[in-house]
């Protein structure tokens, strides 16, 4: 009986040690690696591979900062409560970029979208990440009077 109790105690110790280490490891894979990532300026690495370096408020990106996504995209600009809000530039890994106004994590307001491969650029207004107007200049030739 005493042998069985010792075996149970050892099993429970191993279980709790494994659970503790599991929690510790999962907590340390996403972490603030520099500065103050709650209120101030700091750098945070997410488990997904995303990295944010910039201003923080209440544990969220707020103010100016640089956000690097694990897929190679990046955003440099303003944040409010963890969302892209204000002015900023989002660059896709293929070289395309949007530079302009942001609201609620989407292109909102005046901005410029550039297609790197085509070398084309659109300047105008965006709403919820979509172009809202397309202005086409039409050249009209008027006949000359004799």
The CATH class designation of the domain at 30-131 is Mainly Beta
Radius of gyration: 26 Å
Q: Strand sequence of the main sheet, in spatial order?
A: 1-2-3-4-5-6-7-8-9-10
For the terminal residues, how far apart are their CA atoms?
Answer: 120 Å
Named at the architecture level, the CATH assignment of the domain at 30-131 is Single Sheet
Order of helices and strands: HEEEEEEEEEE
What coarse outline follows from CA principal-axis ratios?
A: elongated
Number of strands: 10
**Sheet/helix structural class:** alpha+beta
Q: Main beta sheet, described?
A: 10 strands, antiparallel
Strand content is over 45%
Number of helices: 1
Characterize the quaternary organization of these chains.
Answer: single chain
What is the residue-averaged pLDDT?
83
Low-confidence stretches: 15-28
Assign the CATH topology of the domain at 30-131. Histone H3 K4-specific methyltransferase SET7/9 N-terminal domain
Helix residue percentage = 10-25%
Chain-wise SSE layout:
Elements: H1 2-28, E1 31-35, E2 40-45, E3 51-57, E4 60-68, E5 74-80, E6 83-91, E7 97-103, E8 106-115, E9 120-127, E10 130-131
Antiparallel strand pairs: 1-2, 2-3, 3-4, 4-5, 5-6, 6-7, 7-8, 8-9, 9-10
Q: What key attributes describe this structure?
A:
single chain; 146 residues; 10 strands; alpha+beta
Structure description:
With 146 residues, the protein is of the alpha+beta class. It has one helix at 2-28; strands spanning 31-35, 40-45, 51-57, 60-68, 74-80, 83-91, 97-103, 106-115, 120-127, 130-131. It has a domain at 30-131: Histone H3 K4-specific methyltransferase SET7/9 N-terminal domain. The chain is built from 1 helix and 10 strands. A hairpin with a 2-residue loop joins β3 (51-57) and β4 (60-68).
